[in-house]
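worker-03 picked up job from queue 'complexes'. Input manifest follows; three sequence lines, order preserved.
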Amino acid sequence: MHTTEVLEGSQAVALAVKACRPQVVSAYPISPQTHIVEALAGMIANGEMDSQYVRVESEFSAASVVSGASAAGSRSYTASSSQGLLLMTEVLYASAGMRLPFVMTGVNRAISAPITIQVDHQDTVSLRDAGLIQFYVESSQEAYDTHIAAFKIAEDPSIMLPVLVCMDGWILTHSYERISMIGQEEVDGFLPPFRPANFLDVNDPKTWGSYAEEDVLMEFRYAIHLAMQRGKRRIKEIFSELAGITGRDHGGLIEAYRTEDAEVILVAMGSVVGTIKESIDKLRSQGRRVGLIKIRCYRPFPFEDILGSIAGAKVVAVLDANFSMGSEGALGMDLKAKVCGRPGAPLVIDFVAGLGGREVNEERILEIVEKAEEMERFGLPLDESYWVGLDPDRVP
Amino acid sequence: MKTGKQSSEEELFVSGHRACHGCGMAVTVRHVLKATGSDVIVVTPTGCLETFTSPYGYSPWRVPWIHHVFENGPSIASGVAAALKAQGRDHVRVLVIGGDGATFDIGFGALSGMLERGDDVLYICVDNGAYMNTGGQRSGASPMFSSTTTDPAGTRSLGKIERKKDLPGIIAAHGVPYVATASPAYSKDLEKKVKKAMQYHGPRYIQIDTPCPTVWGFPSDRTLEVGRFGVTSGLVPLFEMEDGKITSVRKVKNKIPVEEYLKAQKRFKHLFDSEKGRDAVRKIQALADENVEKFGL
Amino acid sequence: MRISVGAVVPGGTSREYKTGSWRDKRPVIDEDLCRKCGICESVCPDSAVHEKDELYEIDYDYCKGCGLCAYECPADAIQMVREEK
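worker-03 finished. Artifact:
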């Protein structure tokens, strides 16, 4: 039974989470995540949702509560942004290492200092090494659908990792969209109760969190990577299964938008994708061969799918709303690592776009396309990432 | 005379763990689990207890046990407790058994949160007064004038000059149902307190003084004797608080001067070769006398 | 041997490591002096003293020779004897 409502993005996420019946929810407030966790609290207070809600004293504890709950065999959920996500970092590495599944929303917000509530992807991208699966959504509708898939993906016996669903703060969480939702029975049919093989059980006592020496540590690390690599196929299967129920197919690990004969291909993730698609349509109508690869799944990095879609292009322009100080944007580095040295590989240029919330509008997208074409004619890679919209004269 | 006997099949903390000879924590954990029985999930933050009980593949814990990270013993426990509640597993209880480093210092915020929320967790602090796992660095629980590796005695220093953080008092101020102190040197008292704590629901705390032969500096067979000296000197008062009021105190019939306790341990030996040191001993005696007065020992 | 998922292992497996090799002295119980009070079993940090047929015996596979049982025995029934290697 599908329903459609105009909802705030945060509300859509809360309803998706509610439908997945988490037994434990825990959160610490931080803008722009608050509306999600407030909506969940409200539904519990009104008896619309049957979860234990643990109001913690820090994000470190929020991540810990869901980790402990997961180890005890309960489906769990948390959400955070920016500073809060960084504070969770140690806990998330440990939980990934212990293969404790749960779902988190990363409501993207730039990181202090200077402190800000502007939006970029530095917070969730900073966690890319930890062993969490990471999805980035373009719209609140996609956020709704992706959260439901996320629980099934996290808890899949071949995966068993935390899943982070990233959505741009304010732009998605605090704006209104028409959201189409599926019925509870459909979610229940798609997502059975969480029944992990290992859980804290007095009838079968086991030990979590052992310390390991160099004779096994590398294998434990590899095990996470392997779960992610193998998980690529399972993630696509689960997205596909859900698409069959919702009638909406957002794509697999990537969405290739008008890339078939593109000479210039942009690569991006998050809500900026919506603006890019419109720009591409406009440029296409002017005869320019431009396309976009929307990264839906950032970790595991879907390089096989990307390579397949950029095969004919001359230049790839990666948009990074994050930056690794002293080096380049993360998505750019991830892509270059896989493209470099392959025969017929296109030139890959990293653009820092949207960092600190600087608007990525149609004009700036055009600037990116033209810069990419210019560099392609020149034939050499840039020494530095190209910071779109930067005013360097203001920097002492 | 018979004490609480237990067959080896019932032992929940089995042999083969890597604790030092004569480890006070190991003795303590055996008594704790004897008192709780097997329907418990134990959370241990990083520390000696975690390290000596979890080399990969060799665990002495015959109860479900989880070590996550250093700061989050209390919040992992809160998560486990919430899960048990959601699953209707009422007969299973949650314990944290953690050291003073995790409890007094790095996990203090998480502990306070757990207490404030009223989560149903029994928190047991195995307190040896320093970061022992890493070699004996100073913690908020280190006793006054003890020498630790990061606050050592020297020509210009008598070791830690600050008092030991009054964690039982701080915890009681959160309004929790049960707070107690105990010692493995008085194991029947310890087990009785654990059993009593298990009768309550909500957050409960028991701080157990666990002497450490390796770093406090005494022979491995004197662990319980040093524990006794701590109690009979008045420096380690054994009491219970229920709903914020002291409801029982273990009186000390034959009090000993603090010197007997201090002289038994290398970590205080610097107090006995100078006038400043002797002055410090007087200050420590004053602390003991304060306890005698306050608790009616 | 394959590693376990998430390094989760069964409990009680520490018994596969015999800490008896840590000893340089071993406790010996004099059965005639023993009052069968059980204090030795109670104080052992390594769960290496077990009641058997009303008496107490040391599990030398695990006993580390710390001496607590000998020191705490109210009957002086336990002596620490140099370990012969």
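worker-03 released lock.
Chain A touches chain B at residues 23-24, 26, 51-52, 54-58, 60-61, 64-74, 76, 90-91, 94-95, 98, 200-202, 204-213, 216 (CB under 8 Å).
Chain A has a mean pLDDT of 97.
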